[in-house]
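To: structure subgroup
Subject: Chain for Friday's discussion

All,

I'm putting the inputs and outputs inline so they're searchable in the archive.
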Amino acid sequence: MIAIIILNCNKVSFSFGINKILNNVSFSIKNTDKVGIVGVNGAGKTTLFKIITSEYTPESGEIYTSKDLNLGYLEQNSGLDENNSVLEEVLTVYSHFIHMEARIKELEKCISTEKNEEILNSYMKEYSRLSEDFSMLGGFEYNSRAKGVLKGLGFSEDNFDLKVGKLSGGQKTRLSLSKLLLKEPDLLLLDEPTNHLDINAIEWLENFLKEYKKSVMVISHDRFFIDKVTDKILEIENCHVKLYNGNYSSYIKQKASDREIQQKHYEQQQKEIAKMEAFIQQQKRWNRERNIIAAESRQKAIDRMEKIDKPENLPDKIKIKFKSSITSGRDVLYVENLSKEFPKKPLFENLSFNVQKSEKLFVLGANGCGKTTLLKILSGNLKQTSGSFRYGYNVKMSYYDQVQESLNPDNTVLDEVWNANPHILQTEIRNVLAMFLFKGEDVFKPISALSGGEKGRVSLIKVMLSGSNLLLLDEPTNHLDINSREVLEESLNDFEDTLIVVSHDRYFINKLATRIIYIESESSIIDFKGNYQDFLSYRNKINIQNEDNENTNEKISSGKLQHLASKEEKSRKRRLEKLVINTEKEIFEAENRLDEINEQMQSEEILSDHVKLMDLQKEQDELNKKLENLYKTWEEASLEFSNLS
């Protein structure tokens, strides 16, 4: 496909009142681009989409699109007919096929009864033309295509006959997304499309968008998702935009490198300007005619110089430190034959597992399998149907609820946190609130007036100050931007006690998990030690084996799954042990060579030989960098190995 520009944003500015959102931003998008839009909450990502769709008018600048550009924008619950069934609603996308199909059937009936030869020929010509068009345009596949997208986004065939009016908000959003994908617009604008999707549906959407033959712009805080889907990243920061080539991982590296280079160039130029200004002052002090001319000449040189801007400050990041007030015993939680069912809806049964101190356990599974329910039971907010659980010695538990049901809507932010921690001084509470970006008058906002993200931060503050040594966290990254997610990851990674977490954020899971419990069905779970990437590799092997066994109608049993998981764990332990041993060997060799270099650099012979000294200095720098990476590899591999032991 020939790449052509389909969208051009030229010097666009936009404000809400006195708050500048976008300032003189310019970029262009081609028909082959898949672009991820990133930036902190409030940076202007959704605002940019609304300017592109003409919902907002910029105060200056222009948006240009190619002629006849078909633009598709996901707006929640837009245009859904609540009287339609799910399948009927999604098939409205193919109304042209439905009309053609109806006309073809009508013509078949007319042809079978018409006696007039001239009229019959007319029907036959129309029938032939319509049938050919129907086939060429994909009419025979539209029904299966619609069902395939619905299934991919988490609707089972049992859901197809449900009335739209009976759906939850999340289901309506998924239905709107299904319709948008089936329309196949030239430029697809997606604002947080992974919200309300479980991991299986997110993976399906990733594959769909990777294969999509047209252009995509997507706003997402799901780093794993934008890494897989995008080939460009548009960053919105401090009211400006910058377009980077490559996916999210590439963008992170490029941004760090660009800032470092800009900072160095800025500092060099500032030193040069300072020298020139010192020269000017000196010439002015001498105050002779030629000195004045020299000073004016140097000043003109400064004025003509293209100034390098100092890199702008990065957006504020919240700072979190989770610290327990007491030490738990080694055995933290015992779960025995736990079951939960609602009327006509069993979730899980005979669920048994034990959790030990310092484990970071993630509970995964499809939407509706009972992950949140399990956390509610373990937190004491819901009663199990059968089975039991108990906490070990000195365990102090704190629960983070994704819908923040425990927050009092009538409290201010300050009162909500202070009431939960009356022993802490107000000054300390205010300092912690400021760390979570609640500053000045923000602390007196009522809980009811907060956004979802703000409520999430208040709940995190309460968990952080609780001094608990077991944290139950239900979707803690929901409503957090990427910067805040990274801070939360670092903080929980430093937390020395125990985590049980429900999350759909695979980047977050992969960074933290030491163990995964995957609820596959109401009577089958996989208990796997390792991070998400390891689990994914293991699950793919199981899927391949199940496909191989389909012809013999043999499905891998739950017991065999656990055996295979144990086998995979042992294999990974061997690989990690080998990596630790080999890394230690490389560290030993590098450190010995550094000792040799240090000794050589002290000798008179080398000190008097500038070239040899420079070569040794270069080798020393390279070895130090290598050692830094080796230490990091050794530390990560050793930690993972100890978690598996």
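Points worth raising on Friday:
The chain has 20 helices and 18 strands.
The two ends are 52 Å apart (CA to CA).

D.
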